[in-house]
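Why run this: before we spend reagent on co-expression, it is cheaper to look at a predicted model of the complex and decide which construct boundaries make sense. The entries below are exactly what would go into the expression plan.
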Amino acid sequence: MLADYVESERDRIVGVLFDWLRIPSISADPSRSASVRQSAEFAADLLRGAGMDHAEIVETGGAPAVYADWLHAGPSAPTALVYGHHDVQPVDPLDEWAQPPFEPVLVDGECRARGAVDDKGQLLFQIEAARGLLQRHGSLPVNLKFLIEGEEEIGSPHFEKLLVTERERLACDVVVVSDTTMWGPQVPSTCVGLRGLVAFDVTIRTAAADLHSGSFGGSVPNSAHVVADLVSSLHDSDGRVSLPGFYDDVRPLTAAEERSLSLLPFDEEDWKRKAGVRRLEGEAGRSTLERVWTRPTCEVVGITAGYGGEGMKTVVPGNANVKVTFRLVPDQDPERVTEAFDGWLATRVPDGVTVEVQQVGAVAPALTDADHPAVGALCRAIERVWGQAPLLTREGGSGPEEALGRVLDVPVLYLGVGLPDDRYHAPNERMVMDQFWKGLLAAGELWGEVARAHG
Amino acid sequence: MLADYVESERDRIVGVLFDWLRIPSISADPSRSASVRQSAEFAADLLRGAGMDHAEIVETGGAPAVYADWLHAGPSAPTALVYGHHDVQPVDPLDEWAQPPFEPVLVDGECRARGAVDDKGQLLFQIEAARGLLQRHGSLPVNLKFLIEGEEEIGSPHFEKLLVTERERLACDVVVVSDTTMWGPQVPSTCVGLRGLVAFDVTIRTAAADLHSGSFGGSVPNSAHVVADLVSSLHDSDGRVSLPGFYDDVRPLTAAEERSLSLLPFDEEDWKRKAGVRRLEGEAGRSTLERVWTRPTCEVVGITAGYGGEGMKTVVPGNANVKVTFRLVPDQDPERVTEAFDGWLATRVPDGVTVEVQQVGAVAPALTDADHPAVGALCRAIERVWGQAPLLTREGGSGPEEALGRVLDVPVLYLGVGLPDDRYHAPNERMVMDQFWKGLLAAGELWGEVARAHG
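The model came back. Tokens follow.
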């Protein structure tokens, strides 16, 4: 049992978490590349300190990953691979943070900082669980490997290549991901699927430069108008994505999946409160959970056109940028969606207007078979810590989990303790520390359950 | 006749122009406020040297203006007020200038510097015409007043208050503005109208903060989508502005105005080349000149929503900003358009989405009656110098001329000699000196014509 380990090591562990969170490892920002590397080295040091045989930086062609292993459980014991990421999201808008994003604080039982829950905090409970078990028992019931990525927040551009290259060293019986959320602190749950993602950076150019709106306004194309027309026509009046054929590959839910969805105590008002919105909307004829977990969507994540500063400038914007993302569900394929988007754009942009499209990230959707014995092992571990069996959920987000399961050909389990209002990717991201400590205990339970299920 | 004055004073006048242009009187740049004041003092000295009775700095609450007068033409002679501005535009992008913007040079018959045509050069020919007439004849055929503003390039924020406060001292029979362009060096023209402008800063809020598009995407409103729907619906499929009643107050062109427009040698390919665009578009059934001069328009000058930095961020933007401008024509009223815009917005924004609108600037359209005798006087003065009668044009931009005409209750004449390629507001601004000297002669002719028309 790790409970006494947690009691005696609590302050040190919080200190380690704070130190890691102080490193601004924003993978999207090229000027932060030294910090991303520093974060990788920090993780490697932690893994060595936890008692791994071996921990090293793995170069990927992009930001560095970290690999570590402990392989003394014996040849008949199963091997588990823990996956997570040490890079974090950008922090803008900075002025919406209650305190600086890389100066972690502990307030009301929450650790607040960029990366607290996504994903340094969730990795740290895994590392500390291994450290505690090795410190108290001298061994683990499974052979344990860690793979910690540094480019998850920019769509894992080098990750699949890394998996393929390192396939032998990464070989395992099960992957455990700690990067997801639970339904609520009193309603433990585990995820069985993630949506896929394909994202595009689109630049519209209507003129060589911004034009004076007095001299030319009303007679020339306006990039802000063109980009607005595009965005406005991405959805039809039923809230469905307008790309031709977009829904053709969507696999219908099974009866068991529909029943599992209906078991969740979904409260629409609570969902609105968590989101901080006053209305819900989306694809017609679908529930909110269907919309975010089992249905594909299109979200524009940014529009930038013309003048955005103080006051006013009388220009006709000569160019505009829009970032468009599509979340995908089984069996949609990012490359087929890319073709559909390119074709759709070509028909929508007027002659004489230039459009450049760049695909910036593609992740296929992931789905774990809920009947696999390893899922049962995870459910028992969670039940032992939270006092009740977890419900089965999905996540609307996307990650490299699909590639992990596919390339390594193993089931992917999700031991995630984030909560829906932890402000992933947003200002004032937090980790509820009670969830953190429970996660640490559950990770300890999990390895015993996995070993038993394998035996 | 001023021709011999020009011949004998040419070098001195160019020297004066260069000295004035060396003063970097950028009103938009607070760090240049001392230069703006220096420029005002330079103008006051010029006016005294030209023989005005009186020239003084006028404090406005912002950058200083200059007032001067010569009032000895007698009580039966008309009074003319020359308006111009001594402040200049910012100079960025600096690296696109062939030489430093405040080190004037004379190349190929052009004076190149910031402010050469907008507006120091055009004011100087007015001041030198008065100086020449007073030097050669000892008097002027009209009572002459000068009002030289120091904040035109930042939207004349204190100008109307100045006009109202100084209304008695500024009383006149006609205002003459020298700040506009002619159709071409061989095609003299005079402007009879400017469009008005009303601008809005609109902020949309759909959520308290940006949301993770994986967690919430597809179930909540997206500010980027809302703002795109708004912008997209500002125009109908005929390129007309969608606000109810927007065109109700637009005064149709007279037959004379239509004929005047049709006389201009408009070249669509040349227009596209100047704009740097590959297509023209706008209100259906209207020519390009109608679209930019005589029709009201709506141009979005900026959209900012969500993430606009490098790479990608997977958020649902919680807020968005759009800056919307309307150019207005007679008899549209900025306040009525503001009411229409507010009403339109209220019907377009979904329940549960917050919208804040701020009016940031309102200028009414200006139109001079082409049949007024003073316009005839101006046309004769131009014809005498250029050898042909001027065509009547308008400008699509907006300025303080409307307030001049309205507050002082007099017709506004435009003796402007700029050319369309003079790079107003852009790098390598120039004044074609042949136009400058002709402007000087035409100003001299103008006062005699105005006196005769008045008599």
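Chain B has two domains: 3-194+365-454, 196-250+296-362. Residues 224 and 342 of chain B are 20 Å apart (CA to CA). Bring this page to Monday's planning discussion.
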